[in-house]
Amino acid sequence: MKGNALTEREGHGRSLILAIETSCDETSAAVVENGTIVRSNVVSSQIDVHERFGGVVPEIASRKHVETITRIMEQAVEQSGYQMKELDAIAVTQGPGLVGALLVGIVAAKTLALALDIPLIGTHHIAGHIYANRLQQELSYPAMALVVSGGHTELVLMRSEGSFEVIGRTRDDAVGEAYDKVARALKLPYPGGPHIDRLAAEAEEVVPLPRAWLEADSYDFSFSGLKSAVLAAINQARMKGQPLDERSLARGFQESVIDVLVTKALRAVKRHEAKELLLCGGVAANRGLREALSASCEAEGIRLHIPPHALCTDNAAMIGAAAYLKLERGLYSDLNMKADPGLSLEKWSVE
Ligand code: KG4
Ligand code: ZN
């Protein structure tokens, strides 16, 4: 749906988006001003509920979103210092994600958009992770994004603002998923990423593990072989009754992951002459990855942006930042918009 661009519709030069994110196990709402200023960003995590199952249980996630979404939206508006009636648009994650979980946010967003008679903007979750970087500073194009989350591992080329071309993706496990599976095998709590990160930092030795480079010119990733190698090492030690050095194993796993991510990201930046590299997604919180990428980028003279921790994991402020791309251009969604677990990032591009 094409509406009037914001500048025509509004006279005061300020735009306020209430953004909603419920794609997985965080219920979040945020008020973002002009696509760049976070006025509030309320995140309610369900991790304690899913922890005992060792992963996200979709039905429980949906039910928890239903229980909390109204309160979270009210809190976001209250903490922003603005009132509901001052909002200019409602943004919501349309996909990818768990369909039942997405649906809760979408129903809430539609209801509010209808009641306030303001535009609805269905937003791509990964565009949100990428544009979390825009909440920190202006971006220069072409830019390359390395997206590393629980569900995604992608290299995304942005030739201009709001245009997305996926040049590489995982062929099996997402990097966060591999972290969580390895952690689970080591009997660490869910989500396992931060625990592996901590163990790796404490390690004094490294268990050497394979790296999946794939074809020489490919920007794709594969982490299932590495995950299997870790699981095999754990099983072997258990079967032989040998003590398992979890720290060295975590370090070996993390080094293998980081080596491939950093090497491919830098190659992609150079090949496409990107002006900067944007790291984003939950795994961007990984200390080892942040340090290794920062060091390599500095050595190669590449500008690197990494959002602060709270903007790396799922949150609604990032959805507000991405939605602003559409609001500025008057690109709104219909009120019959559906949740789309397989929503394409490239098709979501503004150009
Ligand atoms: O982006 P996100 O919050 O949710 C998705 O959209 O998937 O990412 C969650 C993922 C989980 O797999 C979690 O284990 C991982 O991010 N993660 C980490 C770290 N912190 C969170 N992985 C490695 N090291 C960390 N420090
Ligand atoms: Zn995410």
Would you give an account of this structure?
The structure is a single chain. This protein is an alpha/beta fold. The protein has 2 domains: 5-131 and 312-348, Nucleotidyltransferase, domain 5 (2-Layer Sandwich), CATH 3.30.420.40; 141-306, 2-Layer Sandwich (Nucleotidyltransferase, domain 5). Helix content is 44%, strand content 17%. It is built from 13 helices and 10 strands. The protein has helices at 6-9, 47-51, 58-80, 99-116, 125-131, 175-185, 193-202, 224-239, 246-271, 287-300, 309-312, 316-328, 345-348; strands at 16-21, 26-33, 37-45, 89-95, 120-124, 143-148, 153-158, 165-169, 276-280, 303-305. The strands form 2 sheets. Strands 3-2-1-4-5 form a 5-stranded mixed sheet, sandwiched between helices. Strands 8-7-6-9-10 form a 5-stranded mixed sheet. The longest helix has 26 residues, at 246-271. It is globular, with a radius of gyration of 20 Å. 49% of the residues are buried. The structure holds 5'-O-[(R)-(carboxyoxy)(hydroxy)phosphoryl]adenosine and zinc ion. 5'-O-[(R)-(carboxyoxy)(hydroxy)phosphoryl]adenosine binds next to helix 6 and helix 7.
